[in-house]
Amino acid sequence: MKTLSFAAILATGIAGAAFAQNASVKIAPLSVEGLVIGQEIKVDADFVAKYGVTAPVPFSFTVPTNEGQNIFFLPAPGGAGIVKVTFATPDERVKSNLQFVHMTSPQLAPDERLTFLDDIAMQAFVASVPDPDRASIDVSRHIETGPYPAVEMIGRYDGGDDGIVALRIVAIPDPDSENGVVAIINALPKNVAMESVGDILKTDASRALGTFRFR
Predict the structure, then answer these.
(1) What distances in angstroms separate CA 79 from CA 102, 149, 182, 206, one per listed residue?
(2) Does residue 31 register a pLDDT over 70?
(3) What single string gives the DSSP state of each residue in the chain?
(4) What domains lie within the chain, and their CATH numbers?
(5) pLDDT band, very low/low/confident/very high, at 78 (cuts 50, 70, 90)
(6) If you average pLDDT over residues 37-57, what whole number do you get?
(7) CB of 56 within 8 A of CB of 102?
(8) pTM summary value
(9) How far is CA 211 from the centre of its chain?
């Protein structure tokens, strides 16, 4: 049985409420080894105990830190969310954000498991937009993110005053258990250089996702 709760994901959209300054921590630039320069976030037993989130499978990712932008880290962002990172301009206009949500799926053969996850990715896409009738999916495919097979959907939705918002959903199953995560990325073209919806792959939120690893 598919197990995934998307309650309150709508509250994690790109709009002005995309991060709560009184509940988030600003990340300062920090150099680490690897292709992405930034700060590593470890979602492990200590993280779960500290923030009271549900994250049965530990993972980590690196938040790229660049001069000239604000980065906000928000654990337990609400609903099924585990952690959320928002990338913003110096005057705190949202450019993109990345949230991880816990999911479960049966341990099937790799291709069968990805086919099973197609529906979970669709659920996440629909739950992440204010009005599904004013949203569309441009790409739906099976990919590899880091070393992991995954399901990806890229599309767009009407963000109201924020205009068109690009949306990327990536469902990543843990190869060693029934657990996994769904990564939800929003990007606001009016605040970050994007010529097409596909340019969401070039945002800092997607760069952070590229460093994702189960631990």
Answers:
(1) 10, 26, 13, 22
(2) no
(3) --B---TTGGGGSSSGGGS-TTT-EEPPP---SSSS-EEEEEESHHHHHHHT---SS-EEEEEE--TT-EEEEEES-STTEEEEEEEE-TT--EEEEEEEEEEE-----HHHHHHHHHHHHHHHHHHTSS-GGGEEEEEEEEEEETTEEEEEEEEEEE-GGG-EEEEEEEEEE-TTSSEEEEEEEEE-TTTS--SSGGGGGGSHHHHHHTT-EE-
(4) 9-214 (3.40.1000.10)
(5) confident
(6) 91
(7) yes
(8) 0.86
(9) 12
Separation between Cα atoms, residue 13 and residue 162, nearest integer Å = 11
By CB atoms closer than 10 A (0-12, 13-18, 19+), residue 137 is middle
* pLDDT tens profile 55-71: 999 999 999 987 778 89
